[in-house]
Design brief:
The chain is an alpha/beta fold and about 230 residues long. The protein contains eight helices and seven strands; from the N terminus they run ααβαβααβαβααβββ. The longest helix is centred in the middle third of the chain and has 14 residues, at about 105-120. It binds S-adenosylmethionine. Keywords: Cytoplasm, Methyltransferase, rRNA processing, S-adenosyl-L-methionine, Transferase.
């Protein structure tokens, strides 16, 4: 892939086709004796699909996440993405020059990311350069964060069920079928707040209640469906 240009293109974010996963076991292990659909494979594409699209047509440091993470002109913090998932947010931040450490605790999701990063290292120099700023770690971020002192920690746990009937994006339903919910999101936020030296960013659905025992954010960046709660340190 060449450096992003402003040409128009089609977003082909359809790699993951999914049946209805509402019956899949929360741990993602389909029960052979049930009528659950076969679990869809996890796939991570740093070159094409939604990630490539965001890279070509995104708004650079003016986008909500880079803004929330404090990437301004001339300021590029060291970031830990404590909830790596598909690695999209980490890739965006790395594409803007940040060194990003990704932490993922699901063995399946971690393996998917490792594969995706390996494939991306075989792409062109532009993608290889971005991937070279990404370091993937396996484990529970509540533990892995101990002993780290990043400028910024980004936390994007699996979101609580929506109050509306709006369908969750296909790939998020697949991810949920593997990792279930993240009931320890509050503890993860506490761990993040205790190690970050500049700020913690919580990515959360715009209409969801705040995490109960976490202090009020310093400010928020609110989008159509997602909001970024920014907790400044010091
Ligand atoms: C909503 S997804 C994150 C999506 C990600 N922001 C992206 O851009 O693709 C949440 C992911 O965080 C992981 N996760 C949640 N809590 C974690 C923790 N304490 N340590 C490590 N990974 C965690 C889950 O396994 C899941 O893969």
């Amino acid at each position: 892939m060449k450096r992003p240009t402003k040409e128009r293109g089609k977003n082909s974010d359809d790699k993951v086709a999914v049946a209805d996963y509402s019956n899949v076991h929360p741990e993602g292990k389909s029960d052979e004796n049930s009528s659950d659909p076969v679990q869809e494979a996890l796939y991570c594409d740093f070159v094409g699909g939604a990630v490539g699209h965001r890279l070509r047509f995104g708004g650079g440091r003016g986008q909500a996440l880079p803004k929330a993470a404090g990437l301004t002109k001339g300021r590029t913090p060291r970031i830990v993405d404590a909830t790596a998932g598909f690695g999209r947010d980490a890739f965006l931040l790395a594409s803007l020059g940040a060194e990003v450490t990704l932490i993922e605790r699901s063995p399946e999701v971690h393996a998917m990311l490792e594969e995706g990063m390996k494939r991306a290292r075989e792409a062109d120099d532009y993608i290889i350069d971005i991937i070279s700023r990404m370091t993937l770690l396996f484990g529970d971020a509540k533990e892995v964060l101990k002993g780290m002192s990043p400028d910024v920690v980004v936390v994007d746990p699996m979101h609580p069920p929506r109050k509306t009937t709006a369908l969750v994006k296909k790939e998020m339903r697949v991810l949920r079928s593997y990792v279930g919910a993240d009931p320890d999101a509050e503890e993860l936020m506490e761990a993040a707040l205790s190690v970050a030296t500049k700020r913690v960013v919580l990515k959360w659905p715009v209409k969801a209640d705040p995490l109960e025992n976490i202090r009020k954010p310093s400010h928020q960046i609110i989008g159509k469906s997602t909001r970024y709660d920014v907790f400044m340190i010091g």
